[in-house]
Amino acid sequence: KAGVTQTPRYLIKTRGQQVTLSCSPISGHRSVSWYQQTPGQGLQFLFEYFSETQRNKGNFPGRFSGRQFSNSRSEMNVSTLELGDSALYLCASTGLAGRETQYFGPGTRLLVL
Amino acid sequence: AQSVAQPEDQVNVAEGNPLTVKCTYSVSGNPYLFWYVQYPNRGLQFLLKYITGDNLVKGSYGFEAEFNKSQTSFHLKKPSALVSDSALYFCAVAPYGQNFVFGPGTRLSVLP
Questions:
Q1: What angle do CA B103, B18, B108 make, to 5 degrees?
Q2: Touching check for B88 and chain A: CB below 8 Å?
Q3: CB-CB under 8 Å, A107 with B42
Q4: pLDDT exceeds cutoff 80 at A19
């Protein structure tokens, strides 16, 4: 099976812009979670989607949003980018929501200038 | 609140020696515990998990982890370290009905 894919792999944006990141889960997986990884804060949970519904949400401002499509692909959007949004954004998929093993994609590295 | 601690930011070990990366957790209920490894510019790779049963869990690449309920620990171990094991290691807990909680990570350096 193909693994989790994320596009694009690298992005450079300027403050105030918005960005959309995409994640395609492993075939058959229905749950997608998003994380932000920074050197100072480590891995922080953004949100989880299962069957097109947001099931859990982390402690991030409303500028961070996401959605999931009927084919389980997911997108996350960050509006009004700030310098502090520079990070590696990881998505992970599981077959079902809950405590199953999460399988991670390679990440999208976002640099905000 | 659920939390995971990895008390060592950095662990250095000589190639061929045994390695241990420590993890302690705080979670209500029965924990599901995981170890992941991250190589530079890569996503996290699953190594092993504990759900129930035998306290010694075997995983990928010769790694194993020991669950200790009384000490609320889940230390990662390998009998003989390889230089290629050098990476960032994350412990995680999956509380029931909630998202994964990851520890801050431990950087392992295996010296030739």
A1: 40
A2: no
A3: yes
A4: yes
